[in-house]
Automatic annotation (TrEMBL):
GO terms for biological process: pyridoxine biosynthetic process. This is Pyridoxine/pyridoxamine 5'-phosphate oxidase. Keywords: Flavoprotein, FMN, Oxidoreductase, Pyridoxine biosynthesis. Residues 178-225 form the Pyridoxine 5'-phosphate oxidase dimerisation C-terminal domain. It is an enzyme of class 1 (oxidoreductase). Belongs to the pyridoxamine 5'-phosphate oxidase family. Residues 48-163 form the Pyridoxamine 5'-phosphate oxidase N-terminal domain.
Length: 225
């Protein structure tokens, strides 16, 4: 076994977590309400990055893949983002429509993980959001075959310029291969960093198909750090 190069040994890099306690009595009844509370607290501190989230998907064979995407809207029904359906994430979601979202908010020493089934949004939703994007972003989405190889950056820039000339000021139509996804939550984990690594981890798990219930019932558990 080879020794570790001192320049690559990161064991001495440490940080302490000194946040206040996060207990069961602090939780909202519904997990999307708890998410909204934490999200708004973080947005006050870092509005530019508040919507950034890691989207983790897996292929049909279980090969994982993760990347940063931007949350565009959310409610009790789910958490939504937009992309090219032909991208790697789009291909994986077509084969295996399950995913997990991870929000990391270092200013508050917090993480939120949300996992569940993923479904496509209605076409009208994609067209509405696409129409609200800056024109440059519209052009980029229209010419890009996301995740597929290109010769160089100049090729992409030429395609954007060519489409702009062709449109001659007309609106950019939302491409058929571009649209939205919604993750429908089945599990939430709210993680609060605490002193001495004795972190607080509170989980909402969905109890489905309970006879007579009027809405989804969530079971709350604390996990060891």
């Amino acid at each position: 076994m080879s020794s570790i190069d001192s320049n690559q040994d990161l064991t001495r890099i440490r940080r302490e977590y000194l946040a206040e306690s996060f207990d069961e009595q602090d939780l909202q009844e519904q997990p999307h309400q708890q998410f909204h509370r934490w999200f708004e607290q973080h947005r006050q501190l870092d509005p530019a990055n508040a919507t950034a989230m890691v989207l983790a998907t897996a292929s049909e064979q279980g090969l994982p893949s993760a990347r940063i995407v931007l949350l565009k809207h959310f409610d009790q029904g789910g958490y939504c983002w937009y992309t090219d359906y032909r991208s790697l994430k789009g291909q994986q979601l077509a084969a295996n429509p399950q995913a997990e979202l991870l929000f990391y908010w270092p200013e508050l020493d917090r993480q939120v993980r949300i996992s569940g089934q993923v479904e496509k949004l209605e076409r009208a939703s994609a067209e509405q959001y696409f129409s609200e994007r800056p024109r440059g972003s519209q052009l980029s989405a229209a010419i890009s075959h996301q995740s597929h190889p290109v010769a160089d950056r100049q090729q992409l820039e030429r395609q954007v310029e060519s489409l702009e000339r062709k449109l001659d000021g007309d609106a950019v139509c939302c491409p058929q291969q571009w649209g939205g996804y919604r993750l429908v939550p089945q599990r939430y984990e709210f993680w609060q960093g605490r002193e001495n690594r004795l972190h607080d981890r509170l989980v909402y798990s969905l109890d489905q198909d309970i006879e007579g219930q009027e809405r989804d019932a969530w079971r709350i558990q604390r996990l060891a750090p």
